[in-house]
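Table 4 source record.
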Amino acid sequence: MRRAVVIGDSNTYGFDPAGAFGGRFPETVRFIKVLERRLCEEWEIVGLGLNGREIPHTAAELESLDRTLEESSPIDVLYVMLGTNDYLNMFDPDIPQVIARLKGMMERVEASESIRHYHTALVLIAPAQVMTGADEYYAKYDTRDGRLSRAYQRLAEERRWIFLDAASWNLPLAYDGVHFSERAHLLFADRLEEHLNRMKFQLDWEEEEARKREMEAEGEAE
């Protein structure tokens, strides 16, 4: 069985903004749990979502990331979907600063011994759009212009990570314009299920080709 790990924030956690005291959507709704049920015969799905999580960028946070990757290994596919909290916590939203933090995290992931050893497929997901509306103050946090997701795409191409653009998936958000609605969780699960099915086919093919090369090498040695 293969393993996929998703590192994310409150949307990966399954936060329900209408719930009290940090409540979560039920397991029947949260995209991680939906994927677990749908793909249970082929994939182990590990959701590492934390409310309020920003992109790891301090020394302590990066060391914690190292431990998380080691404890979660072996990982066949690693998904990273972070940056919304970084963006929203800035007085003046600064896309280059978000990207700089993300680049530092990605470099740390790439340097991880467990990631390198298991040839983990690395996937960067641009977060869903933030829809703050036309309020004079909060309008600056609205990401529907696509600049943030395009910056993610450029970074993914630079680092040679697979890129998925959740901002283009038309996910219906909750009343706060930030968190997934129930419907968004199910649609997001649909998208990741499609991607995981493609990844399994690719990984299986790569393993089969590697076995063939090994057999050919052994035959030549004899």
